[in-house]
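Hi support team,

I've been running sequence recovery on a batch of backbones for a student project. Most finish fine, but this one hangs at about 90% for roughly twenty minutes before it completes. I'm not sure whether the input is malformed or the queue is just slow. I've pasted the C-alpha cells below so you can try to reproduce it. Let me know if you need the job ID as well.

Thanks,
M.K.
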C-alpha cells in the first residue's frame, strides 16, 4: 500500500474528487493547509478578502503563506500510477503553484469498525 499526498489549489478539489471517483477511488481525506513554495505566494490563488498590505506584499515578493488543500489517498501498490496520473491530469496548468505529490509507503491500515487490516481495510 502507498499513501499519496497531493497538495493542490483549493479551486481544483472538486475536479480532483470527480476524477478520483470516476477511476474508482472515491475515498480520501482533504485538509485545508497553508504553505508556500518557490513562488512565495500568488495573490490570485486566494478567494477571500485581503488587506491592501497583504496584496501589496503578494505583488512585490510573495505572501507569507498560500492556502492549499492537502489530499491523502491510500491505495494498493498496483494503483499508484493510475491515481497519480489522474491527479496530475486534473491539476496541471503549467503555472507556478500547481502543487506537489508525495508517495509514501504505508505499512498497514486498520478499519476500526471491523478490525480488517491491510488492503481490505482501505477498499
Amino acid at each position: 500500500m502507498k499513501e499519496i499526498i497531493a497538495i493542490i489549489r483549493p479551486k481544483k478539489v472538486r475536479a480532483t474528487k470527480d476524477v478520483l471517483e470516476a477511476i474508482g477511488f472515491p475515498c480520501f481525506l482533504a485538509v485545508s493547509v497553508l504553505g508556500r513554495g518557490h513562488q512565495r505566494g500568488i495573490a490570485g490563488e486566494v478567494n477571500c478578502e485581503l488587506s491592501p498590505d497583504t496584496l501589496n506584499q503578494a505583488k512585490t515578493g510573495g505572501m507569507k503563506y498560500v492556502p492549499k488543500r492537502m489530499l491523502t489517498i491510500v491505495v494498493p501498490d498496483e494503483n499508484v500510477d493510475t491515481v497519480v496520473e489522474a491527479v496530475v491530469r486534473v491539476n496541471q496548468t503549467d503555472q507556478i503553484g500547481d502543487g506537489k505529490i508525495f508517495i509514501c509507503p504505508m505499512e498497514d491500515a486498520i478499519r476500526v469498525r471491523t478490525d480488517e487490516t491491510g488492503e481490505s481495510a482501505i477498499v
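--
Follow-up from support: It reproduced on our side and the slowdown came from queue contention, not your input. The chain has a mean pLDDT of 88. No action needed from you.
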